[in-house]
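anyone seen this seq b4? input:
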Amino acid sequence: MSPFAPLHPSQARPVYALHRRFAALSEERPAETWESLLHAHWPGWRDWYLARGGTTAETTREAERALRRHMPEMTKLIDRLSATLPDDPVLREFLTFWCPPRYLVSCTQAASQDARGPFLMRNYDLDPALSEATLLRSNWRGKVVMGMVEGLAGLSDGMNQDGLAVSLSFGGRVGTGRGFGIPLLIRYVLETCTDVQDGLDALRAVPCHMSYNVTLTDRRGQAATVFLSPDRPPMVQFTPWATNHQLGVEWPRHGRISATLERAQSLGLMFARNPPDEATLQSSFLTPPFFSAKYRAGYGTVFSIVYRPVQGTARLFWGCGTGQDWQMPAFAPATLDVEFSDLGSRLLAAPTFLTDLQRTA
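predicted toks r here
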């Protein structure tokens, strides 16, 4: 059984409902799991990419030169991943993420500490029908990385074996420039960096094609947020949280719809008292203005996740408050069925843990 097998459509209900199957997968080197991700998600990404004109780079060579110049550590990995479909040059171009089409996700993220140590929590907001819905543990370059897949090889958030945890949120500005798409930057930081300072240095050095906010924390409890933009230098904020604006709301309509200021004000008050523990932050993240159930309109909280750098764990959870934990050194592949409705999101049943045969079926 494929972990990406579709569920049967819901019966007629008095409220909107969408079912998605989330997968938690693991592999040491790009092989069957990577191929299953391509099979499930590349057709949709390919259509999206070409419909929006693909890269704005003048030539394919420009993207290759940019990758070698700014992220030489990633060139062999991109070579290996793209070799899975050698007859599709669009895949290679897409995986470099150089000057891609505009890409928006509206999220909330915060790093805090409690009795168990530092942690990073985030809400990921998008149309749940579009999410890749995959937690992937990989060891593609000799460093174990665990995170939520975004753009096939990229990540929206994650943590590595060194205890560095990173998350992205949209920065609230529509302009684009010469740079890389943020999912590849998150993957790059986790593949090559060991702590917050390493991550900040890497993000300062690599151009980002749109405005994004990246929050980082590490095993020592260091935390920071960096504002990335294509037209101004990276700005490091020693504020351990971010919503969807930077210096101020620069896209008023998006600011209103996403309630970015309201979320920021709530976080500011919360952190001004004492750093919230995990239970307190989760309680806030699962209620408005942080949690959104506007799935009928194509926008809502798709998942929440918390990373624990000291313990090496990740816990995915949904609006009902229940979820599932994974350990980086002892990762158990599984699938989880989730329902999104006007009432919120909920895990429908206990996870189904996969046998070796099922993982590659």
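The first strand starts at residue 17 and ends at 27. The radius of gyration is 19 Å. kinda curious what u guys think
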